[in-house]
Amino acid sequence: DIQMTQSPSSLSASVGDRVTITCRASQDIRNYLAWYQHKPGNPPKLLIYAASSLQSGVPSRFSGSGSGTDFTLTVNGLQPDDVATYYCHKYGSAPWPFGQGTKVELK
Amino acid sequence: EVQLVETGGTLIQPGGSLTVTCTASGLSLSTTFMSWVRQAPGKGLEWVSSIYPGGDIHYADSVKGRFVLSRDNSKNTLSLQMNGLSAADTAFYYCARFRIYGFDSWGQGTLLTVSS
Fold it and tell me: Choosing among A5, A46, A56, which should be mutated to test the B contact, i.e. which has the most B CBs within 10 A?
């Protein structure tokens, strides 16, 4: 089965910083990759789909890139509201694993 | 407006069985690709099971043979029957709608605790 590996597992950044999270698939998944933001007490929120498409209503400071096995989520200008855990997720054919998550905190 | 409400989570002893249910409004489950995703305390998101509109069902290896996903089109509900429960199954269980490119609607989750 395909495994999804995220890095780093956690990071600390200042307001306004550019933050980058990477996700690597163990096999080619083309662009069947989504990114979610998850805050405690709330369900996850879809940010990016098809590796680089911004979900409606998501701030433009979020962007995604990549295809095949290597993907990146970038936050340009971190805001206090962005403190959360971020997950990549492989879809398409079963199974549909998530990455292990990246916890983003404010410095 | 799409609304998904999970119910049925509770405290149950190891080895026990439990069914959690997702009740949907604003969409028809019979024509929607739906999934269960869980999050154990302090852990990440884990895909559990999915059902296609045509009825094809898939399970994560961690629950295969123990969990059974079913759908009641007349009640517009999705049920996850969980057997042989262990502490490793303790988690918030979310149902979520998948639309071509991602899980775009989620319930608030229901908490299952497996403990003696």
Answer: A46
pLDDT 10s digits, A21-80: 999 999 999 999 999 999 998 999 999 999 999 999 999 999 999 999 999 999 999 999
| Average pLDDT in chain B | 96
pLDDT at A105: 98
* Separation CA A57–CA A107 (nearest Å): 27
The tokens for A56 are 């409606």
The distance of A49 to chain B (nearest Cα, Å) reads 6
Which DSSP string corresponds to B48-107? Answer: EEEE-TTS-EEE-TTTTTTEEEEEETTTTEEEEEE-S--GGG-EEEEEEEE-SSSEEEE-
Which tokens in the block code for residue B60? 């994560």
Position B46 pLDDT exceeds 90? yes
pLDDT exceeds cutoff 90 at B100? no
Give me the amino acid identity at B91: A
What is the rounded CA–CA span in Å between residue B47 and residue A97?
Answer: 6
Question: 């163990």: which residue's tokens?
Answer: A26
Query: Does A46 contact chain B (CB < 8 Å)?
Result: yes
CB B19, CB B82: distance < 8 Å? yes
SS3 A81: helix
